[in-house]
Design brief:
Elements: H1 3-6, H2 12-23, E1 26-27, H3 39-51, H4 63-77, H5 83-86, E2 87-90, H6 93-104, E3 110-115, H7 121-127, E4 131-136, H8 146-151, E5 157-163, H9 175-188, E6 191-195, E7 219-224, H10 225-229, E8 237-241, H11 243-253, H12 262-271, H13 276-298, E9 312-316, H14 326-335, E10 338-339, E11 341-342, E12 355-359, H15 364-381
Parallel strand pairs: 1-10, 3-4, 3-5, 5-6, 6-7
Antiparallel strand pairs: 2-8, 7-8, 9-12, 11-12
Length: 382
């Protein structure tokens, strides 16, 4: 048995979703939209399936999709990518992260991670033979402090994994923070694997900064069609970076999933050409969900942390007058009709703050019922 996986349990997302289904509770835990993405994209996938071909596409992705990714990032982020040498299609962003770690590190190399962190990062680093060096960010602002970050780097640092906006905190790394990381990476000959799947989901007028803007030759940028188009189950991702990185990355990718369903690739090619208004409307819709849920909770004495991007908002249990651990409250809330995710799931070590994460990518009526269930749970322990 592989020791990395033998030591792991079932992910908290699966556990809370299962408990939610068993108890008939609303699922504000797992991060996916309640409604599927645009019908025209679904129809494009259906046509592509029926019209074919449905055989193995090229390992690095359909040329039309790779070109569409480069054009999209040029139009929306001002990035100049050579689609033939700098874009690879993957079976979701998580596969891209795994391939990057397998491609870029040798056993014993150190990988800098920021905590709280997406739960897949740590086991993937360990499985690739990497040694995690974890920097703990502090609520409520979750800022990167230079002295703390610099202390995590050493002569053995090879990769830094970042996520912006951050899951679960919903905070966004500033250009100054990205520049500080770039400086440290250059000094230590390190590569950045930049998980940017939430790049179209920044709120309150914020503009997105890609790590590619500040560290072009040492960054592998990872994107997700699932997050862009509310089709998370499709698992279509993109990895973009300098040719030296993408060539090495593709060698690992070819022995993981090798390729991605061609019908979905063709549908995403179509989707990436959507007008800017689609992305503006999507962003506005999710911001509406955030504001509706926060208003309902704060009106009943909950304290929430700022949510600058992604699908998530967090409740500060102690500040809300709830003297329970995050895990205890999450199980308590299930009994009152709503699933949440405890922050301890995003920490490698003890000492996680008493916070729970909620997903607001839901219909208004679901958010209202979820807020009512959380209010019942709060009143039961106050």
């Amino acid at each position: 048995m592989n020791s990395t996986y033998a030591a792991l349990g079932t992910t908290v997302f699966e556990v809370m979703s299962r408990l939610s289904a068993e108890r008939g509770a609303l699922n504000l835990g797992q991060g996916f939209p309640e409604d599927d993405g645009p019908r025209d994209i679904l129809e494009a996938a259906a046509r592509a399936t029926l019209e074919g071909p449905n055989q193995y596409p090229p390992m690095r992705g359909l040329p039309d999709l790779r070109a569409a990714v480069a054009a999209h990032y040029n139009a929306h982020h001002g990035l100049d990518l050579d689609w033939q040498r700098e874009v690879t299609i993957t079976s979701g962003a998580t596969e891209a992260i795994a391939a990057a770690l397998l491609a870029f590190i040798e056993p014993g190399d150190e990988v800098v991670l920021f905590e709280p962190l997406y739960d897949a990062y740590l086991p993937m680093v360990k499985r690739a033979g990497g040694v995690p060096r974890i920097v703990r960010l502090q609520p409520p602002r979750w800022r990167l402090e230079r002295e703390t970050v610099a202390a995590a780097f050493s002569a053995r640092t090879r990769v830094v994994v970042i996520n912006t906006p951050i899951n679960p905190t919903a905070s966004v790394m500033s250009r100054a923070e990205l520049a500080m990381l770039a400086e440290l990476c250059v000094a230590h000959n390190a590569i950045v694997v930049s998980d940017e799947v939430w790049e179209h989901l920044l709120f309150d007028g914020r503009a997105f900064d890609s790590m590619l803007h500040v560290l072009r030759d040492r960054t592998l940028k990872i994107g997700s069609a699932g997050k862009m188009f509310s089709l998370t189950g499709w698992k279509v991702g993109f990895a973009c970076g300098a040719p030296a990185l993408t060539e090495q990355f593709a060698k690992a990718h070819q022995f993981l999933t090798f390729t991605t369903p061609p019908n979905l690739q063709r549908a995403v090619t179509y989707a990436l050409g959507k007008e800017r208004a689609y992305f503006d409307d999507m962003r506005a819709g999710f911001q509406h969900g955030r504001d509706r849920l926060v208003a309902a909770l704060e009106g009943e004495g909950f304290v929430t942390l700022p949510a600058q991007g992604a699908y998530f908002v967090s409740i500060d249990l102690a500040a809300s007058g709830i003297a329970m651990s995050d895990e205890a409250f999450a199980r308590h809330a299930i009994e009152h009709g709503v699933a949440t995710i405890p922050y301890s799931a995003f920490y490698a070590n003890p000492g996680a703050p008493a916070l729970v994460r909620l997903c607001f990518a839901k219909r208004d009526e679901t958010l209202d019922r979820g807020a009512e269930a959380l209010i019942r749970a709060k009143r039961a322990v106050s």
